[in-house]
């Protein structure tokens, strides 16, 4: 491994840690545990693409949440650029929530 190669796994873990600091305003659980993050792609140029959804298309933070995700991910030193793509396919459901999130919300 030469010095210019980044470890995308390590960077992926850092990105997940950052995502876990972002909360849905209506539910006291972070967006990662809620299952709003469908995928995180990191290429060898340290450019990040995040595929995420919202709890509903009418989500009150539909405008601001993706921007917050982009800003926070871009703030990681190793990240050159970040882009968030919103999808509603598949639509979010409570089944996507982690056990931790369900426990937190008293659903278990």
Automatic annotation (TrEMBL):
<dbReference type="Pfam" id="PF01883">
    <property type="entry name" value="FeS_assembly_P"/>
</dbReference>
<feature type="domain" description="MIP18 family-like">
    <location>
        <begin position="13"/>
        <end position="86"/>
    </location>
</feature>
<protein>
    <submittedName>
        <fullName>DUF59 domain-containing protein</fullName>
    </submittedName>
</protein>
<dbReference type="InterPro" id="IPR034904">
    <property type="entry name" value="FSCA_dom_sf"/>
</dbReference>
<dbReference type="InterPro" id="IPR052339">
    <property type="entry name" value="Fe-S_Maturation_MIP18"/>
</dbReference>
<dbReference type="InterPro" id="IPR002744">
    <property type="entry name" value="MIP18-like"/>
</dbReference>
């Amino acid at each position: 491994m030469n010095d210019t190669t980044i470890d995308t796994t390590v960077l992926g873990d850092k990105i997940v840690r950052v995502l876990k600091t972002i909360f849905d305003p209506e539910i006291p659980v972070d967006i990662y545990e809620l299952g709003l993050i469908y995928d995180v792609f990191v290429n060898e140029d340290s450019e990040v693409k995040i595929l995420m959804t919202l709890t509903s298309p009418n989500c009150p933070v539909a405008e601001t949440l993706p921007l917050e995700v982009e800003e926070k991910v871009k703030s990681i030193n190793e990240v050159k650029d970040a882009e968030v793509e919103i999808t509603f396919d598949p639509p979010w459901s409570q089944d996507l929530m982690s056990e931790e999130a369900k426990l937190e919300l008293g659903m278990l």
